[in-house]
Model the fold of this input.
Amino acid sequence: MMREIVEKIGLIIVGDEILNGRRQDKHFRCTLELCREWNARLAFTLVLPDDMDVMVTHFKWAMAQPHPFFSCGGIGSTPDDVTRQAAAAAAGVGLEQHAEAVRILKERFGDEATEPRLRMVTFPVGCALVPNPVNQVPGFGIANGYFLPGFPSMAAPMMRWILETYYEPGAEQVRFTMALPNAREADLTDLMETFVADYSDLTFSSLPQHTDAGPRVILSISGLPEIAEGAYTDLKRRLSKVAVTFEENAS
Done:
């Protein structure tokens, strides 16, 4: 099977318990770490309630993006677990019990593979299974989305399986960071806008900070080594030309 190069990955976290603070999210960090391993950027993160209409709207938007996304949460068997239904609606397909997933659950649970438990494998028509190494209850993939449990201990290895199975790492990226002590973003706007226009293939960020020693700005650029290295040298030249002091390798 030909694996696709992945450069960006999206993340959707589903659950009222995240939004009301009853549970702290851990999916973001897991996904970010995997993105780094695959030389991919985290394209977006959304936290959604257990609301069918809200999920359908945002799943449709995510499915229209040119990169894959993970959705974590809401694929259990309780009444508030409507992620499967929302994913099917967003993809424009119906729902059905997935024959292979039913077989997996019956093999795993035997006589305890009751109807409520089998609801967990009522998936969008035409989806692909995502194996779950923890309790064998699979997730599923439809369109460019992969729908996983809300437990990071399960979702993280399932994300890794998806990336290892379907995606090649993106090109290696490098990052250069510098601090500008006693600097303010407003005084550097023209310089930054010109620099970004000249190096549109790079990712550029500016982060203002307030320290005990006064204000400072953290500038960061990342991209392919052959572009980023020359751009970083040019950025230092531009700053020196307008007498802006910088400290390299800042955080």
In short: The CA atoms of residues 151 and 202 lie 35 Å apart. The longest strand covers residues 214-223.
